[in-house]
Write a structure and sequence with these properties.
The protein is of the alpha/beta class. The chain folds into three domains: 95 residues, Translation factors (Elongation Factor Tu (Ef-tu), domain 3, Beta Barrel); 122 residues, Nucleotide-binding domain of ferredoxin-NADP reductase (FNR) module (Rossmann fold, 3-Layer(aba) Sandwich), CATH 3.40.50; 48 residues, Ribbon (Dihydroorotate dehydrogenase B (pyrk subunit), domain 3), CATH 2.10.240.10. Helices cover 16% and strands 36% of the residues. The chain has a seven-stranded antiparallel sheet with strand order 4-3-7-1-2-6-5. A seven-stranded mixed sheet has the order 11-10-9-8-12-13-16, with helices on both faces. Strand 1 and strand 2 form a beta hairpin. The longest helix has 15 residues. It is globular, with a radius of gyration of 18 Å. The structure holds flavin-adenine dinucleotide and FE2/S2 (inorganic) cluster. The site of FE2/S2 (inorganic) cluster has 12 residues, from loops. FE2/S2 (inorganic) cluster binds next to loops.
């Protein structure tokens, strides 16, 4: 389906943790309701460098009386995000979206286990909020494993604190919560969850997702992961974001993260090739 590019106006762009910014953008009220796990392609209006838009997960979405508010969490890692960090209130950005296929929402799982590393907190906080508002009843519970290098780089706590969920905070250096990688802490806890009553959702750096795939290999747990590949078009046209998936009869096959994902079932991905 063709998508329009929306011109958004920034009304907040603040550093909330080390090199990590929260940007709130006002958009026309016709912007479609995003699903958790979907993303937008964002470009700064009026500049030609960087030329290509950059993909960002939707962290929060709100309909106000006569406009929509979209929140993005981003880390400064290169040229594009550095320029973003310098934008002031009133600056304009071009937003294409919502794009991609978001998380499949399990209506039956009793345990909704979310695992986020670093900026993976952005899509998973949106998912946790959605599950808390729309899905969770007395019989299903949210467990949110949130990991970061240290307490200074930990993001997403503000949202988690307002949700009905069990939060497990992990830092690599032990400066907050449990000491260790978020995957290690989840691995220790896995026996608490019955595989047939659990859905796991994950997003984070590739090594974290690879490790999760290893931990879950041979188990009956169902797990959806959101992948973050470099993107050019964001809409399935350039094949720049292809990842290898497990094809039929051991043959290599490829899927586009932007159009076929970014959310995939973890056992679909050929992790050895990533
Ligand atoms: C679906 C999707 C959702 C994303 N959501 C978020 C988000 O919510 N918050 C956030 O901070 N980032 C997110 N990213 C990553 C974000 O798009 C990149 O960090 C951003 O494009 C970097 O732009 P840049 O111009 O600053 O960096 P560049 O100058 O283009 O690159 C700087 C460094 O970052 C690396 N890099 C660039 N793009 C990616 C990528 N997609 N994945 C991993 N490494 C990359 C490069 O290899 C290079 O080392 C998402 C990516 C995808 C595909
Ligand atoms: S970024 Fe162009 S096909 Fe995915």
């Amino acid at each position: 389906m063709a998508k329009n590019i929306y011109i958004g106006e920034i009304f907040k762009n603040e550093e909330i943790a080390q090199d990590c910014f929260l940007m709130s953008v006002a958009l026309h009220s016709t912007f479609a309701e995003p699903q958790p796990g979907q993303f937008v392609m964002l470009r700064i209006s009026g500049i030609s460098e960087p030329f290509l838009a950059r993909p960002f997960s939707i962290y929060s979405f709100q309909r106000e009386t006569d406009f929509c508010r979209i929140d993005l969490l981003y880390q400064v890692v290169g040229k594009g995000t550095q320029i973003l960090a310098g934008l002031i209130k009133g600056s304009q950005v071009e937003i294409l979206g919502p794009l991609g296929n978001g998380f499949e929402i399990s209506q039956s799982a009793r345990n909704l286990v979310l695992i986020a590393g670093g900026m993976g907190a952005a899509p998973l906080s949106f998912l946790a909020e959605y599950l808390d508002n729309k899905v969770c009843s007395g019989s299903s519970k949210i467990y949110f494993y949130l990991g970061a290098r240290n307490s200074e780089t930990l993001i997403g706590m503000d949202k988690i604190n307002n949700l009905t969920c069990t939060a497990v905070i992990c830092t690599d250096d032990g400066s907050l919560g449990e000491k260790g990688l978020v995957t290690q802490i989840l691995a220790q806890d896995l026996k608490k969850y019955a595989p047939d009553q659990t859905m796991i959702y994950a997003c984070g750096p590739k090594p974290m997702l690879k490790e999760l795939a290893k931990i879950l290999q041979g188990t009956k747990f169902k797990c959806q992961v959101s992948l973050e590949e470099r993107m050019a078009c964001g809409v399935g046209a350039c094949l720049g974001c292809a990842v290898e998936v497990k094809g039929k009869k051991g043959m290599a096959a490829y899927k586009r993260v932007c159009a076929d994902g970014p959310v995939f079932y973890i056992d679909e991905i050929a992790w050895k090739k990533i």
